[in-house]
Amino acid sequence: MRRRWNAVLVELAHHLPYTMVSSLIAMVVVWYFGLMQAQQHPGGEWVTEVRWSFHVLHPMHVCLSAITTTAVFWHHERRLMRTLAFGIFGSVIPCGFSDYIVPFLGGRVLGQPMQLHICLIEHPMLILPFLVMGLLAGFVFEEPVSGGSVFSHGAHVFVSSLAVLMYLVSFGFMGWMTDIQLVFPVLVIVVAAVWIPCCVSDIVIPVTNLHPHIHGRRRTVPSPAVQS
Question: Does the pLDDT at position 190 exceed 90?
Answer without folding.
Answer: yes
